[in-house]
Amino acid sequence: MGSPAPPVPMDRVTEALFRVRGQDPQDLEALVGRILGYIQFVLPDPPVSRHATLRACLPNDDVDRVSALPYALLRDIVSRLPDKDAARTAVLATRWRELWRRAPLVLVDSHFLTPAAASGGQVARAEARRVTAAVSRVLATHPGPIRCAHLTCSYMDEFPSLLARWLQTLAVKGVQDLVLVNRPFPLALDLPVALFGMPALTRLYLGFFKFPDTAALPRTVSFPNLRELGLCTVVIFGPDMDFVLARSPALEILCIQANLFTKRLRIVSRSLRCVQIIAATDLDILVAYAPHLERLIIWSVLANKSSNMRIKIAPAPALSILGYLEPEFHTLEIGNTVIKAETRASPTTTVPTVKILGLKVRFGISNDVKLLPAFLRCFPAVERLHIESKKTAEPTGKLNLEFWKEAGAIECVQSHIKLMIFHNFHGDQSELSFLKYILENAPMLTKLVIVYPKRTFTSVTEANSKLEPLFAAKWASTCCSLLLTEGAYAEGKEPPELQNFKRGSNFSLRDPFAFIARA
Fold it and tell me: pLDDT category, 63, cuts 50, 70, 90?
């Protein structure tokens, strides 16, 4: 997680405006503060930290060996220091005097906060202005290049033209990695079109902004080197999202937190490898053309009872990780076929490349459970299955083992599943029926992990007793182990940092869903 960047308090004019609208400014400020906190958890970490420690074995003499290092190596060392420390190296020796100005700059504005402001709950307006002024001085003083700018503390609404000047300066000095978060209020500050003048950008994260209208932009505008894009609580409309994808030929990673005014994400990209979404709100996702897409991850949704979000997957020859699908909210469509409980597997209704699948299911709702076999049939080659059981206050019926026996053959269960992790186990009959079906029909299964929420059961003995029906079954696998463990959190009390983009976009991590916070 990046350095803390607490929210700036609401100004009096904005406060009065919300009171006129009948809204409590304090409640809204608290809500925005929580959202801003969530954003901080999903932002990429700055490449430098002022909390890092430096250790070395001191020699027995006073010889300055560091200054004798090659000039290129000294520049690299300085470029990895926090801004203030890097600038202070100029006083060390004559040879260090120009190093900071000639080293690639890493600018992290939270490093300019006083210790009290960095650790407090809010940043006073005077402190915010001081940080903004410090950023402006550094941008004016350092000739570039700028390797990274991580700007999350400045209160931009007080300086309407300053943001455009910052972006222009960053563009001229070849910024490659830019994280830019508006300190509300306002909640959706207009982004200057100068954003599109940064050809060197390889990574861009935006938070609490309104994306520019792209309709009038020249066709030549593009992000030719952009590899990773994150949009956190950004107001962006569908045509503008389509524009960004079309003008980013090197884009591999797209991360969206809390889509605002984007009701449809149409994925058309030759380069995209990973799409991640946190807090999807009434968002249809259409994988129209993405030959290199490997991961489509929906960590969570924000929805009401009437929400219905379409997940349509056209041919996706590289798609290997998919989840979390929720029968409660998601309508799954493969090709031109809407998957229903009675849908049978066929070449036009399956995605045989998916190896890792995540599903969130209300086992107390019969309609959810009836869709589960159909969903599993759509992915016949799944090897690692992640199931999260969602508790419901109003169950509509619990389906027993007979339902699963009558459901028919499911290829991934019978031929491929090696690992299953079952989260939020409550010991309900419907959950046990599904688990028993898996154990009796999955000959390739080598490990079943069952995780129950903290304080679900009064003791380990009670938790173990809930699994007795599973040991009475005849397991299809002769080498399967079962692990029952208590989670670290009560159901619904999981901290927001458990949902982050870092796991999903780490391609060296085989299975981003295989994460268990144990008690």
Answer: low
